[in-house]
Amino acid sequence: MTFRRLSDLPLAGKRVLIRADLNVPQDEAGNITEDTRIRASLPGIEHALAAGAAVMVTSHLGRPTEGKLEPADSLAPVAKRLAEMLKRPVPLVQNWVDGGFKVAPGEVVMLENCRVNKGEKKNDETLAKKMAALCDVYVNDAFGTAHRAEATTHGLARFAPVACAGPLMAAELDALGRALGKPARPLVAIVAGSKVSTKLTILKSLAAKVDQLIVGGGIANTFMLAAGLRIGKSLAEPALVDEAQAIMDAMAARGAQVPLPTDVVVANDLSALARANRIAATEVSPDDMILDIGPQTAQVLASLLAKAGTIVWNGPVGVFEYDQFAGGTRVIAQAIAGSKAFSIAGGGDTLAAIAKFGITDKVSYISTGGGAFLEFLEGRKLPAVEVLEQRAKT
Ligand code: ADP
Ligand code: MG
């Protein structure tokens, strides 16, 4: 992937417009409950300020109706928090699309919630051109919205004089490119979680690239069905058994593997108090629900991870929210933490598992991309990234 980087551009005296992802969670009174995204956006903003740029920052917040700004949709609390972090004023500018506001070199303003602007979602050209006229350099630092072609993520990049990636976006693309572009082999992917249907495209796309595809959770149950194993009352999607079989066949044909569980942890109900039993994968009875991989399987997978050159992880291999079904995911997490491989991980519940098992610092790169991360794994071109690549040539 070739794109311009903010860090490579001369910025002194330039008007720099940064599209960040400052979509932070808020409580009912509008207080910010978690400010990771604001903190993560600081390096790009601080770099532009230190380089002498006149900085404008915008972001979406929530899901406002285009054309009207409700008080709850305002970036005002975000501007206030950003000002505290930067230790300098961050005035909030409303109705900014047509300009008419001032920002001097070395200063920063926040431009009100960009999803309030009419035409944002539809990537309206007129809107994008007006926004592009406000800046000399457009910076996309919002990987989390890279799978959406909207006016601030795509159109603005087309029409701004210069378009580049901010440090967060660049780090994300570098990590994903390293994992899936020219990976150190063997490349091992773990695709787990509840359903094959939500991850079928990821499974197919990764199946064509990886040396080992580790499946877990409800996804593994569907693969076990395909392999002729009985799975009792476990979560599975019988309608997708043929797809699972096709994936295993295609991988076997090129000498790659989908290791299936040899032992599992089962219970008769799914609750905090459920009694867990470890049994062989061939001994699942009609009343059993498979809720985790067994310790023997976990050890086999851990040794594959120990030998990996690159690891891509999405999805917990068991119902890790309950301790009696968390063992498999813990072993996988610790194997990734201990591996010398370049590792990336992403997905809402996967991040929760990483936090729960305390391995945050030991994963090479943790994607905060959510939907954009999953679409990247699907092998899709992200529109906001594609346009940055095109603009790198002009
Ligand atoms: P992510 O958000 O990381 O992409 P998913 O949303 O696909 O992951 O899946 C996570 C959920 O899958 C967790 O809530 C977990 O409890 C559930 N899960 C994992 N294994 C099983 C299983 N064997 N049976 C039912 N649910 C499972
Ligand atoms: Mg999830």
Helical stretch tally? 13
Distance between the termini: 15 Å
Rounded to an integer, what's the Rg over CA atoms? Answer: 23 Å
Ligand list: adenosine-5'-diphosphate, magnesium ion
General form: elongated
Q: Major β-sheet, in short?
A: 6 strands, parallel
Overall number of strands:
14
Reading the helices and strands in chain order gives EHEHEEHEHEHEHEHHEEEHEHEHEHH
Low-confidence parts, pLDDT < 50 over ≥5 residues? none
Strand order of the largest sheet: 3-4-2-1-5-6
Percent strand: 5-15%
Helical content (DSSP H or I, runs of 4+): 25-40%
Structural class: alpha/beta
Mean pLDDT: 97
Q: What report would you give on this structure?
A:
This protein is of the alpha/beta class. Helices cover 36% and strands 15% of the residues. It has a six-stranded parallel beta sheet with strand order 3-4-2-1-5-6, with helices on both faces. A five-stranded parallel beta sheet has the order 8-7-12-13-14, sandwiched between helices. It has a three-stranded antiparallel beta sheet with strand order 10-9-11. Helix 4 (151-159) packs parallel to helix 13 (383-391) and helix 6 packs parallel to helix 8. The longest helix is centred in the N-terminal third of the chain and has 15 residues, at 36-50. It is elongated. The protein starts with 14 loop residues before the first strand and ends with a helix. The model has no long low-confidence stretch (mean pLDDT 97). The structure holds adenosine-5'-diphosphate (ADP) and magnesium ion. Adenosine-5'-diphosphate binds at residues 193-194, 217-218, 235, 290-291, 314-316, 318-319, 321, 347-350.
